[in-house]
TrEMBL record:
SUPFAM superfamilies from the UniProt entry: Cytochrome P450 (SSF48264)
Source taxon at top rank: Eukaryota
Pfam families: p450 (PF00067)
Species lineage: Eukaryota, Viridiplantae, Streptophyta, Embryophyta, Tracheophyta
Name under which the protein is recorded: Alkane hydroxylase MAH1-like
Cofactor needs: heme
Keyword set, alphabetical order: Heme, Iron, Metal-binding, Monooxygenase, Oxidoreductase
Length: 465
């Protein structure tokens, strides 16, 4: 962000105050600066693309930040081969290990094929749909019931993290940590993943040598990351010892479609990566969805009407709910930025000439809030924008709606994510009233995942008692 502030000055003469803010946010990582909102503002003022090359001597990086749909299509699809994630991405996300998520080129193609065979198979989806409904009925609903009966205040973000975490563990390795049973305390694994995301965000912002220095000194977010890494490894080891007790043969289990190397470390990396891809994203959308719906009671009423006409199980018929989730994903995409590295020099459709090794940052969150992309009402929560006059979900060009990424590297779990989100949201809206605490501050964290900084505190009332 520091670099963005510098560049914004050179591009449009924005005040020096911005540069100062950028500098301060690096020097004092806990400074209250809403970086994602600032990014949208700066991009809107700079024709959707900011190119920073003149400061590479200072930052050690050549960076281009864009929310221009034409550039996005070029980077993510038309000239995909020139834009791998790159070695820095792998380094920033080192806690996830070596998997599909960090792979590039031939290695990525191979891993992607294996994962797609598995995640797109109808048997996988059928099995997961059963697991999702089971977890809702036997895990989530009893907690909602207790919270409602005892008139407790609950953190919905924490609740959704635990709920999706249990599903993600079951999906990845057939293990249920029963995180929801610890409803009164924060789940350590979820907290660790949040710390990983914050540290990764800081690494993306900082000059390479600076975050490495922080790691060496064991300070700041790097200190938190170290502890988070230990927690993740400890929880995984606990899971494996339980599986070992049950006579689990990981070498037999660990072959395609779960990845290509049959080692314990390979298994750990794949399981943790899949959980990461599933839990943080899906629980974040659910949290922002309930926040948005609470602020727009007419939308909640429409969803409720829609559900009352059919069974909540008929998820495909819940068009308005689907639209409300898409609207949440537009305004609060769990991954606010995507990052690629130019393998060779290139010219983007916007006319920007970039050098080899330029880090191209796709500003997903900013794109959802651009007047030029979504119209004058871009800041409003309007599920209607997703529905055609025939009452179907509108197809939006993939390079305009990037919450699930786009092109050959598009998310492989989109369908499952919608199943989890729709089943969970439909069950809650049909049976409960959610009352977000008045004046609760709903702020995003400065992180690679759009977590809420203070959680989402709410009361829950059963509608039928
Ligand atoms: C609302 C929920 C979700 C959102 C918004 C989401 C979003 C994304 C995004 C933006 C990427 C691209 C990341 C990048 O290129 O840097 C991605 C990749 C991926 N996602 Fe998801 N995701 C969600 C849920 C899931 C779930 C539930 C699964 C697993 C079942 C999953 C599996 C994957 C995989 C395997 C990739 C890697 C694709 C590749 O690199 O080829 N995602 N997701």
């Amino acid at each position: 962000m520091i670099i963005l502030f510098f560049a914004s000055k050179s591009c449009s003469g924005l005040p020096h105050k911005r540069i100062l803010l950028g500098l301060l946010s690096i020097l004092f990582p806990n400074l209250e600066v809403r970086l994602h909102d600032k990014m949208a503002e700066i991009l809107e003022q700079n024709k959707k693309t900011v190119h920073i090359h003149q400061y590479s001597w200072l930052t050690g990086a050549k960076i281009l930040v864009t929310s221009d749909p034409a550039n996005v299509r070029h980077v993510m699809s038309t000239n995909f081969a020139n834009y791998p994630k790159g070695l820095k991405w792998r380094e920033h996300m080192d806690v996830l290990g070596d998997t599909l998520f960090s792979a590039d080129l031939k290695e990525w193609e191979h891993e992607r094929k294996l994962a797609r065979c598995f995640l797109s198979h109808h048997k996988f989806h059928d099995a997961m749909t059963k697991i999702v409904w089971d977890r809702i009925q036997t895990g989530l609903v009893p907690v909602l019931q207790r919270v409602s009966e005892q008139a407790l205040v609950v953190d919905l973000q924490d609740l959704f993290q635990k709920h999706i975490l249990d599903i993600a563990w079951i999906m990845s390795i057939g293990y249920n940590p029963n995180s929801l049973s610890t409803e009164s305390q924060k789940d350590l694994f979820s907290l660790a993943l949040e710390d990983v995301c914050e540290a990764a965000f800081t690494r993306f912002l900082m000059p390479h040598s600076l975050w490495k220095l922080h790691r060496w000194l064991g300070i700041g977010k790097e200190k938190k990351l170290k502890h988070a890494w230990e927690t993740i490894d400890r929880v995984f080891a606990d899971c494996m010892s339980k599986k070992d007790e049950d006579g689990f043969n990981y070498q037999a289990f660990y072959h395609p479609p779960f990845g290509s190397t049959a080692t314990r470390k390979g298994l750990r990396d794949n399981v943790i990566s899949l959980i990461f891809a599933t839990q943080d994203t899906t629980s974040s959308v659910l949290t922002w969805f309930f926040y948005s719906v609470a602020k727009h009671p007419y939308a909640e009423a429409k969803i409720r009407d829609e559900i009352s006409e059919i069974s909540p199980q008929e998820l495909n018929k819940l068009v308005y709910l689907h639209a409300a989730l898409c609207e949440t994903l537009r305004l609060y995409p769990p991954g606010p930025v995507l990052s690629r590295t130019a393998a060779d020099a290139d010219t983007l459709p916007s006319g920007h000439r970039i050098e080899r090794d330029t880090n191209v940052v796709i500003a997903v969150h900013a794109m959802g809030r651009m007047r030029s992309v979504w119209g004058d009402d871009c800041h409003e929560f309007k599920p209607e924008r997703w529905i055609t006059e025939h009452g179907e979900i509108k197809r939006v060009p993939y390079y305009q709606f990037l919450a699930f990424s786009a092109g050959p590297r598009i998310c492989l779990g989109k369908e499952l994510a919608f199943t989890m989100m729709k089943a969970t949201a439909a069950t809650i809206i049909h049976n409960y009233e959610i009352r977000i605490l008045k004046d609760h501050p709903a702020e995003p964290k400065n992180s690679i995942v759009f977590h809420m900084k203070h959680g989402l505190m709410a009361r829950i009332n059963n509608r039928w008692t």
